[in-house]
Specification:
Layout lengths: L1 E3 L5 H9 L5 H12 L3 H7 L4 E6 L4 H13 L1 E6 L4 E3 H8 L5 H10 L3 E2 L5 H7 L8 E5 L1 H13 L6 E9 L4 E4 L7 E4 L9 E3 L4
Helix pairs in contact: 1-5, 4-6, 5-7, 6-7
């Protein structure tokens, strides 16, 4: 299974910041997320049966996942509805606030990704160029739940299983249909130093 340790959206939020579209509260909280090191996640990860790992940075989630799938020659199923996003980044993307690098990332990966009916804005979210993103970990299914729980107990509230390698093939990525009522958001609050909740929007 595939574990992602941090929420996606820092590239979009950073672009919005440059345009003066971000509140001070969001700027502070997203900066804290970016400043959080992956050291703790890595120390927990090595206790388990992990077959591959990469950090998610400038090539976006799909760009780095493509590196893993091509190197292993294994197809991947990615569950869009399970990927944690910074809620404000989702809103900003819908308003067209998307960095140029994210468009480039989509162009780079699209030949190897079956997006199905996923709208273009959601495709771009998966390609958002991250600053100090989390780890993307391929872990044995029998270890995934215990690893996730340990990471959550260590304060990584956004960590989630987002997909899995399925079979030896061409290293293609298949995005499962987007389910609006299952989309995971990280909601920040100005009075807290950490995300206060993971929420799902109403249908």
């Amino acid at each position: 299974q595939l574990i992602l340790t941090k929420a996606i959206g820092t590239g979009i939020v950073s672009t919005a910041l440059k345009r003066g579209l971000v509140s001070d509260e969001l700027r502070i909280e997203v900066t804290k997320q970016m400043a959080e090191l992956n050291k703790k996640a890595a120390e927990i990860m090595i206790k388990y049966n992990v077959s591959a790992c990469t950090d998610v940075t400038g090539f976006g989630l799909l760009g780095h996942l493509r590196e893993m799938s091509k190197a292993s020659k294994c197809d991947v199923s990615l569950l869009f509805s399970k990927v944690p996003f910074i809620k404000e980044a989702v809103d900003l993307a819908a308003a067209g606030v998307i960095p140029g690098g994210t468009y480039n990332n989509l162009e780079y990966v699209k030949q190897d990704v079956d997006f199905g009916s996923l709208p273009r804005t959601k495709q771009l979210l998966l390609c958002d160029a991250q600053t100090s993103g989390g780890l993307l970990i391929s872990i044995d299914k029998s270890d995934a739940e215990e690893c996730i729980n340990e990471m959550k107990n260590a304060g990584m509230s956004s960590v989630a299983v987002v997909g899995e390698f399925t079979k030896k093939a061409h290293g293609s990525i298949f995005i499962k249909p987007w389910a609006h009522n299952n989309l995971r958001f990280v909601i920040y609050n100005s009075s807290s130093e950490i995300p206060i909740a993971l929420a799902t929007p109403l249908p």
